Amino acid sequence: xRLNICGxxxxxxxGIVALGSLAAAVRPAAAEGYPQKRGGWFLGFGFGGGTAALxxxxxxxxREGAPTGxxxxxxxxxxxxxxxxxxxxxxxxxxxxxxxxxTTFDVGAATFYFHPPSNGLVLRxxxxxxxxxxxxxxxxxxxxxxxxxxxxxxxxxxxxxxxRTFSIGPQIDYSWMTLSDFDANYVNFGLSxxxxxxxx
Length: 200
What we know:
mainly beta, 1 helix
């Protein structure tokens, strides 16, 4: 993996802005237009950018910047506790000696969500499966390779409730996987969009 300095600087700036927004956002829900009511099904997705690195035989690669995305669905058992399934990933395509090389890391996990009362802070963590996927396209020929193993994900976000059942806000995720030949991890900074299917 080659280090993209410009992309890494942009991701660092995005990360600082996201962290600043997250810190400024932790305030009572009374200051928002809609209360942070939870209970029932929820659905959400996010997109942004992140950095990834590999570790093998005690050596780590430089971190590489690329676009990221996430998807989640679950059920809020109470205003504070939710359970669901979450998937997030990191993917990058680059030209190497006239060939297009695409590398993707993703983690799919059963995830526990905690929502502290009175605000939109969301803490989550899950365990599941991690995957590394690589493809090389040379002309009309594409060669692919996939490896799977154990994965985990941790995240923090803030939901700004802009409608009674819809929220938007910054999110930060860390994912790690261990595979037979190497370990991989990525840190994602992004914007999340969430729908809350709650009763009136």
